[in-house]
Design brief:
single chain, 340 residues, alpha+beta, five-stranded antiparallel β-sheet, two-stranded antiparallel ribbon
Length: 340
């Protein structure tokens, strides 16, 4: 990995090699950091003008014989490596999905971590602002219908050129998350009940499709006109498309907004737009199952974060401990949902 002082020149060289862009990197600044991904914003100044871009760096994925969920802010899930992530975005964008426009996919010859460069899209991503900022009121009025149409396009995206995508049935996802909880050694009656409920209500029939798996408020770039871009494709897979509608309707990801679709719109508007765009009827029972399962996944994710430790066995951070305490929120939402 290069140091910050030579990141700009190496990045400029990589863009010249992969995309034929000759320019100078300016305004380079780090946006986020973590164990799995680092994001930088920058401008590439070329003879044609200033091009706003994003660099995302991701460590190479460790080999695995099966699903191996890794840590992330959202629910744990099998992750794509950087090149795979980029290829999914390219495929989705080619099918009309507002995914980031991939400019270059980095490789070991660039002297940088594995990663990719995309065009930068301006807009709001913070969940509480998306659902509550008065300046985005017009956007919120349109977003449920926009989300339905976007999800229909995602689920219709051809996957023949994406052979690396994992194919996970509901039962396989349950096995993955049950194993994750088992490894923590943590026991809780509500978690055990939720696991059993999910096991008893596993869907028996569905139409496989590309699913984003984390399509929600916070992973959308929003402007005054509505949804501009869909971010965070790293846990995309082949599975039941109703999963994406369930995740979007999770109470956690409404960020305090009252409307059931992402905290910004009506569930009925989401369903109607999806059916118009896809020609496929929404199965409310399967959406409810995935909404419930997604609450359980996030509860398990909270447990894992809360129990994270350093090499010496001490708690990883106060922040992660605080996330662990939030386990009760998605569990409460789970019980409210299945009782309703």
């Amino acid at each position: 990995m290069s140091g910050v002082h030579d990141l700009g020149p190496r990045l400029a060289s990589a863009l010249q090699r992969h995309a034929g862009l000759n320019g100078r990197v300016e305004e380079l600044r780090r946006l986020t950091g973590g164990a799995t991904k680092t994001t930088w914003s920058f401008d590439l100044l070329t003879g044609d003008g200033r091009q706003p871009m994003i660099l995302q760096q991701t460590p190479a994925r460790l080999p695995s014989s099966g699903p191996s969920p890794g840590p992330s802010f959202g629910p744990c899930a099998p992750k794509l490596d950087a090149a795979e992530d980029a290829r999914v975005m390219i495929a989705a964008r080619a099918h009309g999905v507002p995914a980031p426009r991939v400019v270059a996919i980095l490789d070991v010859h660039d002297g940088l971590d594995r990663g990719y460069v995309t065009a930068r899209v301006e807009g709001e991503t913070l969940g509480r602002k998306v659902v509550g900022d008065p300046a985005l009121a017009v956007a919120r009025a349109a977003m449920a219908a926009q989300a339905g149409a976007i999800l229909a396009a995602i689920h219709a995206t051809p996957t023949q050129q994406l052979p690396f995508l994992q194919h996970l049935s509901p039962a396989q996802e349950l096995a993955v998350y049950g194993d994750l909880l088992e490894r923590t050694g943590f026991r809780h009656p509500a978690l055990e009940f939720a696991l059993q409920w999910i096991r008893r209500h596993l869907p028996t029939a569905w139409r496989d499709a590309l699913v984003h798996s984390d399509f929600r408020t916070g992973n959308l770039i929003v402007g005054p006109e509505g949804i501009r871009c869909v971010l965070d494709w790293e846990i995309a897979r082949i599975g039941d498309p109703m999963q994406d509608l369930g995740v979007l309707c999770m109470k956690t990801w409404r960020f305090g907004g009252a409307p059931e679709a992402g905290g910004f719109g009506a569930r009925d508007d989401l369903y109607a737009a999806y059916e118009r765009a896809s020609g496929v009827p929404v199965d409310p029972a399967r959406v409810r199952f995935w909404e419930a399962f997604s609450n359980l996944k996030w509860a398990i994710g909270c447990v894992r974060r809360g129990l994270s430790v350093r090499g010496d066995g001490s708690p990883a951070s106060v922040e992660l401990c605080a996330v662990g305490r939030r386990m009760e929120e998605p569990l409460w939402d789970f019980f409210q949902l299945i009782e309703g």
